[in-house]
UniProtKB/TrEMBL annotation:
UniProt name for this protein: Membrane protein insertase YidC
TM spans (from-to): 7-28, 34-57, 171-191, 215-241
Lineage, top ranks: Bacteria, Bacillati, Actinomycetota, Actinomycetes, Micrococcales
GO cellular component, one term: plasma membrane
Family annotation (Pfam families): 60KD_IMP
Length: 315
């Protein structure tokens, strides 16, 4: 894993060093755990800011998937009860054709998370290797030199080292890491819950894929909570910071850019109506073009250009 993630570990180590030097330059103690905690949080904010374009792409992809739901529903009805290999293959091909036509893909919503996974494990490995770097058992990782590693290795928060996990000895470390793991799992649950309950239409929710997502809504926090007991305090700080960013960012986006047909869209329409404001252009219903009506009350039928020319010649 160290070999695969080495380039990312190198970048993470340099970013940590940069922010650590910034905060020590303004007067924070170099070996203080809070200095390193703030550096980790600052690194998280920087990474999430870089990922904003991916998040915007994710939101656009989710919107397209919402608009795609009526077609998906018709496709499911078309192949309902057909379980043979040929039908399944045809349904899959037609689904892919729909995704290509609308320029979207279900996996697009996972992009920000997929990008963060190597960052997460790289930070985990850097913190895990800090004691060995400090002791001279291994070389520096990027900007994490032996001197800097010694400062980080000695850093504590409430007397707890950044390398400590829930499995480490001591009641204090167990209480602190347990509280952080619970908050981390809660933010994960709230983020997924607000997406499913507020930013999805009834059609989007009524399909097998979303039924699986509902199960994962409760399963993921449990998985993270169980896995969290093995992560160092420094990694938990990163995880909590990134979950909080995601939760707040998503709340802002859902409130101001709701998906079509969702509960959030209805709430936004109600807010605008209450304030007497016009809806944004992308939310306003498109006016249907109608043919002009004669004074007699009958609709004027559209006339082609060729027929119009012929009429002019006759006149």
């Amino acid at each position: 894993m160290d070999t695969i993630l080495k380039p990312i570990q190198w970048v993470i180590a340099w970013i940590l060093r940069l922010f650590h030097e910034i905060f020590t330059a303004i007067g924070m103690p170099a070996e203080n755990g809070w200095t390193w905690a703030v550096a980790i949080i600052a690194m998280t904010m920087l990474i999430r800011a870089i990922l904003i374009p991916l998040f915007v792409y994710q939101i656009k992809a989710q919107r397209k998937m919402q608009l795609l739901q009526p077609d998906m529903q018709r496709l499911r009805e078309k192949y309902k009860g057909k379980r043979d290999q040929y039908s399944r293959q045809q349904m899959a091909e037609e689904q892919q054709a729909l995704f290509k036509k609308h320029g979207t893909n279900p996996l697009a919503s996972c992009l920000p998370m997929l990008v963060q996974i190597p960052v997460f494990f790289s930070l985990f490995r850097v913190i895990h290797n800090v004691p060995d770097i400090a002791a001279g058992k291994m070389g520096a990782i990027g900007g994490m030199t032996q001197q800097l590693a010694q400062q980080m290795d000695n850093a504590t928060i409430f007397g707890i080292y950044l390398r400590d996990t829930f499995m480490s000895d001591g009641l204090g470390v167990k209480v602190l890491t347990a509280v952080m793991i619970i908050i981390m799992a809660a933010t994960q649950f709230i983020t997924q819950k607000q997406m499913m309950s507020k930013n999805m239409s009834a059609q989007a929710m009524d399909n097998p894929f979303m039924q699986q997502q509902k199960m994962l809504l409760y399963l993921f926090p449990i998985i993270f909570a169980v896995g969290g007991i093995y992560f160092p305090l420094g990694v938990l700080i990163y995880w909590l910071a990134t979950n909080t960013w995601t939760m707040v960012q998503q709340f802002i986006v859902i409130r101001n850019m709701p998906a079509p047909g969702s509960k959030a869209e209805k709430e936004m329409q109600a807010r605008y109506a209450k304030k007497g404001r016009a809806l944004p252009k992308h939310m306003q219903p498109k006016a249907e073009e109608e043919a002009p009506v004669k004074k007699g009350g009958q609709r004027q039928q559209p006339i082609s250009k060729n027929r119009q020319k012929k009429k002019k010649k006759k006149k």
